[in-house]
Amino acid sequence: MKISGIILCLMFPVAAMAQNQSMNAGDMQQMMQLMQKMQQCMAQVDQARLEVIGEKSEKFGQEIEALCKAGKRKKAQKMAIAYGKKIMKDPVMVQMKKCGEITKGMLPESMAPSFDEEFDFSNKHVCDEN
Q1: Distance between CA 36 and CA 34 in Å, rounded?
Q2: Which of 9, 67, 88, 107 can bridge 76 by disulfide, Cβ–Cβ 3.0-4.6 Å?
Q3: pLDDT, tens digit, 9 for 90 and up, residues 25-44
Q4: Residues 6 or more apart from 79 whose CB is under 8 A from it?
Q5: Which is more confidently placed, 83 or 20?
C-alpha cells in the first residue's frame, strides 16, 4: 500500500499508451494536454501530508502482514477494510483520486488506475495480496 507505487501506477498507463505507434498527432497532443493537467493537479497535493500517509501506510502494511502470518486473517481483514475507508476520505487522497481521474476516458478501463480498488478489501482478502 505504498503511496509512491500508486503515483507510479497513475503514470504508467499513460506512458504505455504513448508508446503505441498507432497514435496520431491529435491523440498525442490530447494526451500531452491531459498529462499537463494531471501534473498541475498533482502539484497541488500536499507533499508533506502525502509523505506522512505513505509512512503510516507502510507501518500499517507491516501490522497487517504480521497478523496474516500469525493466522489472524479475520482481524487483518477487518482492519484493512477500516483503514481503506479511512484513508480514502483523507483530503490528500481525495485530491490524488481527482488527479487520477483526469486520464479517465482516454485509457481503456483495464489500464486506468483506480484508487478505490487499491484500498478496497471488501471483495478480496488482504492476506491473499502479494
Answers
A1: 5
A2: 67
A3: 777 788 788 888 888 888 89
A4: 60, 63, 64, 67
A5: 83
